[in-house]
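User: Could you go from structure to sequence for me? I need the amino acid at each position, not a summary. Structure tokens:
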């Protein structure tokens, strides 16, 4: 009987279905909503969203896709999203209620991303004067108050939202090294010594802080020092010079390439900020950008730039003498300051695949990925 039992066992063994390996589960799909399309976006979208999304996709932790907000809200886009990150006012106000309803029905996590104070009365007045109409401001407010998670760029901005009863996590700004990597600049000796100031339209009032600083300013060798402005304002005041952007250079990667092409025009980069709550919630992005451009940094001694002096930056109060003293210091030892600043940025403030820093972990957690 033993041989018969062995034969039956062998036959049964052949007939028994063998366990099949499970098909690999696709990574979660994360959508993002920003202004612009086809890779052409405002600077804030590149800095805060698309660079991080590219690094996320490269890591394999998620699939990512830009989402048309109206088509997703009305169901024309049928893709199921595990999460969708929306920057500022990129989701039109009229479509937000439908978006929240669909997200609730499908289990989609909505994450709001803001990097400016859109909530205090003085900040809203400033934004309205610059570029934001009431619907844009209302869209930010509705989004942030209804989102499952909120990501902000600074601790003071987190505190602004906390005062509104809104929880948020801080993800500091970073730079994409492939855009900015640059050695310290050796400025040209032709003409006056030039200092760069760049920014958006919301910084027009900050620029006025420097009017008296550059009125008759000369360096220690008696060479005239001129402020050269890129962006910020379209006013052509005689007290500063303007370097016009070519067509297409408002696209952030092209803007960075334009700055790098002209970097040897400048001996320093400046970042004045007036004393107000809107500015106090801003990040130290200008320090990161000027440093990676290869320029020593001189900025206002405000909460936004607290601590940059530990990494080669220079800080000035609102007085003319303080700004001139800081600039003269920047002119004397630029290379050491820039190398210290760049070492800090590369070590702690870079957006790239494989980084495992508190801000990166907080960002992924907000998206529901960890």
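Assistant: Here is the amino acid at each position, in order:
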């Amino acid at each position: 009987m033993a041989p018969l039992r062995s034969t039956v066992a062998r036959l049964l063994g052949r007939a028994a279905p063998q366990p099949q390996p499970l098909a690999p589960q696709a990574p979660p799909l994360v959508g993002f909503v920003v202004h612009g399309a086809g890779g052409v976006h405002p600077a804030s979208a590149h800095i805060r969203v698309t660079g991080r999304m590219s690094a996320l996709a490269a890591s394999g932790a998620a699939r990512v896709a830009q989402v048309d907000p109206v088509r997703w809200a009305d169901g024309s886009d049928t893709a199921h999203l595990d999460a969708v990150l929306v920057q500022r006012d990129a989701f039109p106000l009229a479509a937000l209620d439908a978006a929240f309803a669909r997200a609730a029905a499908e289990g989609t996590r909505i994450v709001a991303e803001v990097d400016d104070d859109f909530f205090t009365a003085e900040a809203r007045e400033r934004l309205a004067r610059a570029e934001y109409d009431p619907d844009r401001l209302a869209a930010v407010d509705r989004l942030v108050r209804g989102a499952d998670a909120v990501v902000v760029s600074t601790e003071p901005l987190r505190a602004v939202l906390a005062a509104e009863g809104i929880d948020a996590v801080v993800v500091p700004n970073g730079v994409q090294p492939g855009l900015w990597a640059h050695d310290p600049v050796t400025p040209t000796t032709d003409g006056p010594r030039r200092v760069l100031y760049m920014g958006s339209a919301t910084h027009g009032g900050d620029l006025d802080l420097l009017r008296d600083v550059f009125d008759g300013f000369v360096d220690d060798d008696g060479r005239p020092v001129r402020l050269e402005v890129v962006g910020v304002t379209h006013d052509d005041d005689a007290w500063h010079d303007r370097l016009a952007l070519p067509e297409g250079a408002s696209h952030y990667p092209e803007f960075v390439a334009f700055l790098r092409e002209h970097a040897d025009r400048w001996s320093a980069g400046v970042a004045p900020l007036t004393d107000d709550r809107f500015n106090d919630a801003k990040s130290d992005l200008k320090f990161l950008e000027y440093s990676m451009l290869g320029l020593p940094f001189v900025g206002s001694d405000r909460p936004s730039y607290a601590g940059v002096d530990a990494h080669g930056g220079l800080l000035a109060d609102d007085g003319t003498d303080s700004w001139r003293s800081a600039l003269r210091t920047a002119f004397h030892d630029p290379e050491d300051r820039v190398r210290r600043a760049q070492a800090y940025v590369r070590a702690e403030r870079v957006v790239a695949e494989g980084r495992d820093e508190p801000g990166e972990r907080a960002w992924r957690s907000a998206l529901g990925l960890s």
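One structural detail worth keeping in mind: DSSP finds 15 helices and twelve strands in the chain.
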